[in-house]
Design a protein that fits this description.
One of its GO terms (biological process) is regulation of DNA-templated transcription. By secondary structure, this protein is α+β, with helices and mostly antiparallel strands. The chain is built from 11 helices and 12 strands. The structure holds guanosine-5'-triphosphate.
């Protein structure tokens, strides 16, 4: 039916717009043969409208999964409904190269795709129109925001000097472990490792050397840990390690190994070679610890015993102490 508002000259304009618009337009017939292919599609695919015309879309673009596409398109033909696919569901329909200078990091253009029914004069839907939007900028910005958030989160979790978890991040994990071991009765041990006479290291070699000692010890500790263990910088010169599924004897074995490793370590700082020792206090989980704080207190008492007994040793918290 002729639309009285559209003059012949207008159609010429409309064709110009359709060819030059920065959006992909494709018309498909009932057999999925291409009937219209605009300038956007030509310039991104390298396929001319003459070549595209009458070709089945899946034959020309094998990256389009036929079953998935038909599942989307059939309701558009039959129910005259629109469908919309966003890049989060499927990054692209047509595998076009991304050419944008700012988001050049993406190899492929991200696309949102609409499918709309096109009614003929008898109101049957014999054709559908695909509208392809280039959303690469949005997708890349979103990916950047996610990774920036991730870095920020990680920044808040770690102690910047030792790269171990910081205490505020570790404490809730420890409290959770306390509840879990209370509930399940599964063994877990808390190990506190404190550098001996660290004040002396700072005064003798300088604060920067002290920092280097802490960094080196933390790195050694990280190497000893299993995936499930979690360590933090507990105070300035002490570390806490939560050993999951580890009873007191196994924890002593772990602690003695790290203590002896540290004892034999030579830490090189400008102008000096430094040796340090550590004292270690261990408390294995037990029902008597009514709170995570009580468990920590027990490990601290054991650590103080190790210090009082002459340092460079491991002490296990005994409940009858
Ligand atoms: N270099 C450096 N020193 C720190 C840091 N945090 C805490 N310290 C120092 O660690 C020292 C801890 O001293 P003390 O608590 O007396 O313990 P200690 O000298 O190790 O003695 P014992 O634990 O009893 O063997 C203090 O001098 C703090 O200034 C840090 O991040 N870097």
């Amino acid at each position: 039916m002729k639309d009285p508002n559209i003059e012949l000259g207008d159609i010429h304009w409309l064709m110009d717009i359709l060819q030059n618009i920065d959006v992909g337009l494709v018309v498909l017939d009932r057999d999925y043969r291409i009937q219209l292919w605009n300038g956007f599609m030509e310039s991104h695919s390298g396929v001319s409208p003459q070549h595209a015309k009458e070709q089945i879309i899946f034959d020309l673009f094998d990256e389009i999964p036929r079953d998935w596409f038909m599942q989307k398109a059939e309701p558009v033909f039959q129910l005259k409904t629109r469908t919309f696919t966003i890049w989060e569901q499927r990054p692209y329909l047509f595998k076009f190269k991304n050419y944008r200078p700012i988001t050049g990091r993406a190899a492929t253009m991200y696309q949102n795709t609409s499918m709309i029914p096109l009614e003929s004069i008898n109101r049957a839907v014999d054709h559908i129109c695909l509208i392809i939007y280039d959303v690469t900028d949005i997708a890349i910005n979103r990916a950047d925001a996610i990774s920036a958030n991730q870095s920020l989160r990680e920044l808040h979790q770690y102690d910047h000097l030792t790269e171990l978890f910081n205490r505020p991040h570790w404490e809730p994990k420890f409290a959770e472990e306390h509840q879990r071991s209370e509930r399940t009765g599964q063994a877990a041990s808390l190990v506190l490792i404190d550098v001996d006479n660290f004040r002396h290291i700072n005064t003798e070699y300088g604060h920067q050397a002290g920092d280097e000692v802490l960094r080196t010890l933390a790195a050694a500790l990280r190497q000893t840990l299993r995936q499930t263990d979690s360590a933090c910088r507990f105070t300035g010169e002490s570390f806490a390690v939560m050993l999951i599924g580890t009873d007191e004897q196994q924890a002593v074995h772990f602690a003695e190994r790290i203590r002896k490793d540290i004892e034999h370590m030579i830490i090189t700082v400008p102008g000096h070679e430094i040796s340090v020792t550590v004292s270690i206090g261990i408390a294995a989980s037990q029902p008597a610890f009514e709170s995570a704080a009580a468990w920590q207190q027990a490990a601290l008492r054991a650590l103080n015993h190790a210090k009082d007994a002459g340092r460079n040793r491991t002490t296990l918290f005994q409940h009858q102490e």
